[in-house]
What does this fold into?
Amino acid sequence: MTSSRAQRGISNYDGRGRDASPSARLSMTLVVFLLAACTSTKPRPIAIVGATLVDGSGSPGVPNTTVIVRGDRIESVGGAVPADAQVIDAKGLTLAPGFIDMHNHSGAGFKTDPAAETQVAQGITTLVLGQDGESELPIGEYLKSLDKSPVAVNVATFVGQATLREHVMGEKNLDRPATDDEVRAMAVLADQAMRDGAFGLSTGLEYEEGKKSSTEEVIALARAVAPYGGIYMSHVRDEGQKTFQSFEEALRIGREGGVPVEISHIKMGSVSVWGRAPEAVRLIEGARAAGQDVTADCYPYDAWHATIRVMVPSGRYDDPHDVGEAIAENGGAQNVTVVKCDAHPDYEFKTLQQIADEKHTTPVDMYMSIVRDGGANVVVRSMTEKDVKVFYQQPWVMVGSDGGITARHPRGAGTYPRVLGRYVRELHWLTLEEAVRKMTSAPAARLRLRDRGLVRAGMKADLVLFDAERVIDKSTFQDPKRLPEGISQVFVNGVTVWPVSGARPGVAIRRP
Ligand SMILES: [Zn+2]
It folds into this structure.
């Protein structure tokens, strides 16, 4: 997508003509340089005029508000337009804080797309990486590399428990609980990660790298991040039949580790737990009523995306009985779509049922042969919208995409517009103000970011302008990277990143 998406005559703050000749560009650069030199103490302000302000707090939108941005900060809300301001006419649009994605996998994608097009096109301005137990390490070096070569969005990170295991125990040696010595060594690394700026510890106990971890081993690492105010971010051990035991385990890790808990991408992910979201809510509200700090994030889809191995909780990927049960538990082979398969690219975007039919075999045999050939990534439609709705209506559930630049699931390009268009405008599950709060001040408060997540004077100028009547996701299971519609302009630290401008104003955010 190009800047042709710019709507309503909104201009690029960055001001660089895409089609300017090299000499024109050079003279423009000189002018910009001279202007910057003369006005370096007071950059030219931007006045966003006429939008309905939904400020992220959850309070009702205020029509026809003027917001002044100067440099990377919001200078005023509701004040007069300075004479030298660049004016953006935002009549008919909604202005909100930039969206903070609590669960994002864009890390690797920055290498090919530092503009993070599918992310900024949704209004995302801050990504939280290091999820599901996998992170960069050392965290300090990673954040410094982002300081040196920034991307379009702000980046924060957790430290991954599986990454710590790989580092200490060796990649080929993860099929057992860690020894006491290994746990101590991991705790030292976790402590260093927190001092480097990580926001807490993430796990992906459903994945092979984390599966054999004992609860006690995770508690020990939670204790290591606790003194820094770290959060325990949990992709729980089982998102199918054993969902409830897995939630209990996450709560126990929080209690005994002395850390707040966030359940990642909360879901009722298989047939035997369908319709039980209200029970999950009762379980978590019980913990909250007893004084435990627990939240969750949730993506707006009835399908998950992970490795094909995750489907079989027993880990016996070559046992026809366990594999058959796993396929049934996910509602059948027609619900399982292979989206990435290095050994058989021709399987991609076909269901397990289709592939089995083509090969004249059964889905169970097909599953086992895919795993034998190196595995695959799958999108599995094994959730119900009824459960998603229950979660979205809880004030302690925020939005997280679980997507990212390279995602082969529509959530990677559609999450935020889908919540605003489908859940708010079409289905009336929640108000626009509440949805925006779940995308902005709720995650900011969770991360204790004091200068993002609200449109207030003095806050960082991460902002989204969108058309609440039009905003909608366009990405599909067959075409997962299709960009959404209705997001007009996105600023990160006062600089336009959508429509894609080439600017990279994002910062590495360290735990405050
Ligand atoms: Zn996950």
Notes: The pocket of zinc ion is lined by residues 132, 204, 235, 264-265, 402 (CB under 6 Å). The radius of gyration is 23 Å.
